[in-house]
């Protein structure tokens, strides 16, 4: 698959901006150096959105197929069902357990 240089550049710049916003969210002094009004209650930027938990994602609606997938007759495998005893019933794990205290 071929990915263009422009796509790589956009991805790199987006990651760099996200990392820069995270660094500013961790270091409030650095945030105040970048934004002089960072202490103001009406200040809005990506850092304050991250700090307040205001970043929301849109949920993805699951795709449900109404029609079952076609099956190929050559891949149908049939097994003869054989009754098998349970392995754990034959182990007798609690055979020598201590008596219950009443």
Structural class: mainly alpha
Beta-strand content estimate: under 5%
Oligomer: single chain
Count every helix, treating DSSP H or I runs of 4 or more residues as helices.
4
Q: Would you identify the regions where 5 or more consecutive residues have pLDDT less than 50? A: none
Q: Helix-strand pattern, N to C?
A: HHHH
Main sheet makeup: none
Question: Judging from the principal axes of the Cα atoms, what is the shape?
Answer: flat
> Helix amount, in percent?
40-55%
Question: What does this protein structure show overall?
Answer:
The structure is a single chain. The protein has a domain at 22-56. It is 40% helix and 0% strand. The protein has helices at residues 5-26, 28-34, 46-52, 87-91.
Summarize the structure.
The protein is mainly α. 40% of the residues lie in helices and 0% in strands. It has a domain at 22-56.
Defining key terms:
single chain, 102 residues, mainly alpha
């Amino acid at each position: 698959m071929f990915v263009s240089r422009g796509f790589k550049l956009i991805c790199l710049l987006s990651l760099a901006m996200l990392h820069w916003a995270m660094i500013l969210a961790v270091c409030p002094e650095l945030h105040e150096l970048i934004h002089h009004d960072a202490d103001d209650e009406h200040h809005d930027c990506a850092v304050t959105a991250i700090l307040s938990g205001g970043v929301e994602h849109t949920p993805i609606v699951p795709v449900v197929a109404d029609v079952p997938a076609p099956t190929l007759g050559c891949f149908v495998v049939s097994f003869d069902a054989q009754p098998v005893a349970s392995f754990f019933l034959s182990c007798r794990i609690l055979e020598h357990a201590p008596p219950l205290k009443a």
